[in-house]
Amino acid sequence: MTRARDLANISPGVPTGFRNVLHNGDMRIKQRGSFTTTNGTFQFTTDRWWVFSGAFVANPSYVTSTGLTNFPNALRAQKQSGQGGSGALVMGQTIESVDVNQIRGNAVTISFWARAGANYSATSNALVVYFSQGTGVDQGTTGSINQTWTGNTVPLIGTSTLTTSWQRFTHTYTVLSTTNEASLWFYQQPVGTAGAADYFDITGVQLELGSVATPFEQRPFGSEQLLCQRHYFVSGTQYGPATSFGLGNSYHGPVVFPTTMRATPAVTTFNGSGTANSVSWYPGNTAGTPSLEAINTGTFVINQPGTSYNGALYTFTASAEL
């Protein structure tokens, strides 16, 4: 039971509970560790966030020392120095349909911190914010970027003018009443050949109900981590149990995930040196992709019959990203 003195310590005017529809808005969770360049495609970067580039090479990267109070981490989207080419440089997060339910038909406010590199090449130093929406269910990031979602529309909801110093921006938008899936985009249209610092940095991103931007919601690390692990999980790291296996000729080892995953994940196993290998995943004793039920109850096993792997260590990644 909440005591009166506890209520007295809650700051007036600041809503309680989970306000931010987005996950990992302050870029704290970084299960993938590192990532490569993009060119005409997208890749997932810091948890739940992706970066897309047009017909040029882009370098997504972590920023781990921002100099910004309360936000030590940021995500950078950078057009590689010397690259010409056309198209956009986009950073975004695709929102699961079950989370879109709470904002459908309502006014929302997007707030974030951003800065530009010294050679940021967008006309008028603009960073454009779009809100991709569709009437389907969880049709994925590729469909959002290609604008092939059912009933897809991508309205511009605000333009921010960046400088090389951190600024906080806010934009308000009313989500369409027919929306079942959504994706937030930060969009740069690079011009000309990139210099050494043609990039933008983003952190402290919040999407919340209402037309007023409240302070960024600093959720406990463990809570934010579990929200991310619903979509992507790496074993044997600081983010999860060290689920490694010493395999014999026909060894079965139970696997327990830290949280219920969004959907049946794509699983890749690795040997002790980090090389992807052919260990098979079994729900019970049936070969094939483990069922979501098996994954969520920790009842499926791994098996590599006929080969001795005594003493070898195996880890895995599991992705249920949109």
Mean pLDDT: 85
Helix percentage: under 10%
Secondary-structure arrangement, i.e. CATH architecture of the largest domain: Sandwich
Low-confidence stretches at least 5 residues in length (pLDDT < 50)?
1-15
Strand order of the largest sheet: 2-3-7-12-9-10
CATH fold-level name of the largest domain: Jelly Rolls
Question: Termini distance?
Answer: 39 Å
- In percent terms, what proportion of residues is strand? 25-35%
The shape is globular
| Sequence of secondary-structure elements | HEEEEEEEHEEHEEEEHEEEEHEE
From the alpha carbons, calculate the radius of gyration and give it in angstroms: 21 Å
What does this structure look like?
The protein is mainly beta. It folds into 2 domains: 15-219, Galactose-binding domain-like (Jelly Rolls); 230-322, no CATH class. The chain has 5 helices and 19 strands. The strands form 5 sheets. The protein has a 6-stranded antiparallel sheet with strand order 2-3-7-12-9-10. Strands 5-6-13-8-11 form a 5-stranded antiparallel sheet, with no helix packed on it. A 3-stranded antiparallel sheet has the order 14-19-16, with no helix packed on it. β2 (42-44) and β3 form a beta hairpin. The protein is globular, with a radius of gyration of 21 Å.
